[in-house]
Amino acid sequence: MSRDAAHASDGPPALLTTSVSAGYGAAGNAVTDLSLRVPQGEVVSLLGPNGAGKTTVMRAVSGLLGLHRGRLTGGRVELFGKDMTGARASQRVRAGLAQCLEGRMVFPGLTVAENLATGGHVRRYRGGAFTAARDEVLTLLPRLGDLLDRKAGYLSGGEQQMLAIARALMSRPRLLLMDEPSLGLAPRIVEQVRDIIVSINEHGTSILLVEQNARMALSISSYAYLLEGGRVYAEGTPAALEQDNDIAAAYLGAGTGTEPVVPRGADS
Ligand code: ATP
User: Fold this and answer.
1) Which of the listed residues 20, 29, 56 should we mutate to test ligand 1's pocket, taking the one with most ligand atoms within 8 A of CB?
2) Same-domain pairing of 155 and 200
3) Please, which of 38, 48, 189, 213 could form a disulfide with 185 given CB 3.0 to 4.6 Å?
4) Which residues sit with their C-beta closer than 6 Å to ligand 1?
5) What is the pTM (predicted TM-score) of this model?
6) What is the phi/psi pair of residue 100, to 5°?
């Protein structure tokens, strides 16, 4: 079965931003007129160099701009067809959104099990629902099952990244925002993170993936946006972007290896 046939849904997109602009006070807009779409069941990448505005887009979607003294200055954000432009972050979580923040952001003094519990908190699980959610997450990230009693601060960088992903999954999101999950990880661990993203998506979660590792991101995405100076510079399928020599030269140099970008499923 083709990737499209296996994943595509006729419903509204998981995420739709229309002409979104956002910034931080007097500095002006960090993101301008950004329209992007994550269809349900897809992995879509948001790529670009340092300072391009990728994290600002994530904050605009999650409703966390205010926490960073930023604000939306224009445009509209929809989750699963519902207008969420002015909604609080907690309302967006209830609509099915979860975010896995850049820099792993686990609680170092808490155990793995306790970190997972904080991820389930928003759902207010009762009875066996918490255990069921945790078991489901641990089937996707089985390595964490052996580390439940270990303090998160003692985990390796790769294990902390797995934990950050697992914690975000505890709310059983329908749309997961992932901010640079490969950052600072060894190539072998980046491969593991990539495989985990693929399995999360195969279990039905739509994903907006922010990455500087364009090769890794494109290899598992159905579509990508390239951000430069807060604006969309180019967008398209991985195959189309790779065929553009200027884009390939400017954006596709970074990666775990020198292998060509091959979208998942292209060889099947
Ligand atoms: P990186 O890949 O380095 O994380 P990015 O593409 O995620 O970068 P953003 O973090 O969104 O980019 O930053 C976009 C612009 O907004 C930058 O010029 C940055 O300095 C600025 N910016 C980000 N956060 C704030 C803030 N809290 N206050 C003021 N300016 C900010």
Assistant:
1) 56
2) no
3) 189
4) 24, 27, 30, 48, 50-56, 68-70, 212
5) 0.89
6) -110, 110
